[in-house]
Write a structure and sequence with these properties.
Layout (H helix, E strand, L loop, with lengths): L1 E4 L2 H8 L6 H12 L3 E4 L2 H14 L4 E3 L3 H6 L2 E2 L2 E4 L1 H8 L1
Parallel strand pairs: 1-2, 3-5
Antiparallel strand pairs: 4-5
Helix pairs in contact: 1-2
Amino acid sequence: MINVLLDTNVILDAVANRVPFNKNAEQIFILAAEQKIKGYITANSLTDIYYIAKKQLEVDYIITRDDIFLKSGKNVKNIEIIEPLDFLEIFA
């Protein structure tokens, strides 16, 4: 399996549906979901995505296992910060 470090912009292209870049970014996520590649992001990317989502995207939840975010507060600007298991218990 190929290990891939994903740039912040590639992640945001997929998540924010940023045309025309979103299609390629989505394909990369599909490859990861199909376990054809193993994707990684840096801690800095996680922080950048968090702040951009908080300011620019219309999101209701930030799903993370990062203690820094979880300890920062469970609700920031009407965005709930939640662990993956808690999210799945609510919506699965």
